[in-house]
Design goal:
With 138 residues, the chain is α+β, with helices and mostly antiparallel strands. The chain has 3 helices and 6 strands, in the order H-E-E-E-H-E-E-E-H. Strand 1 and strand 2 form a beta hairpin. The structure holds methionine sulfoxide.
């Protein structure tokens, strides 16, 4: 629908802005739970296209957050065994769940080419971004 297209456009703009303004955010995307399927679907992103547009619950950092409802900051992706590599350049990743009316409906996912770049400030900031995004979702 026209409304969905406008939300997609705004989500893509959020991704592009974060990637542009924060040097160590090298890939920024929003995944959402896909209907009744136990999987996440990529809805918007900035950075290199990824093959991982569908991620089953439980798989990788993203799939784990779909089940845990918790922020997941990974300072060194090499140290994670349940990890889905999107690019050989990625050193660190952070995933923050996105809540609407208390329900985990998706997440923002950031990849970094810098090792151990994320602090509590990133978590707080990305929680704020997700809360703002929650207001524009249909
Ligand atoms: N690395 C993620 C997969 C998504 S890509 O980073 C875009 C994961 O392990 O879930």
């Amino acid at each position: 629908s026209e409304k969905e297209l406008s939300v997609d456009h705004r989500l893509n703009e959020v991704c592009a802005l974060l990637k542009k303004e924060i040097t160590y955010y090298n890939w920024v995307g929003f995944y959402f739970k896909n209907g009744d399927k136990k999987e996440l679907k990529l809805r918007a992103f900035a950075g290199e296209p990824t093959d991982h547009t569908i991620i089953p619950f439980g798989k990788g950092i993203c799939g784990q957050v779909a089940e845990s409802n918790q922020n997941f900051s990974v300072p060194d992706v090499k140290a994670q065994d349940n990890y889905i590599a999107c690019s050989i350049n990625v050193k660190a990743e952070i995933v923050i769940p996105l809540f609407v009316n208390g329900e985990n409906i998706g997440q923002i996912d950031i990849d970094s080419h810098t090792i151990d770049p994320f602090t509590k400030k990133d978590e707080d900031f990305l929680e704020f971004v997700n809360a703002e995004v929650a207001k524009i979702l249909n």
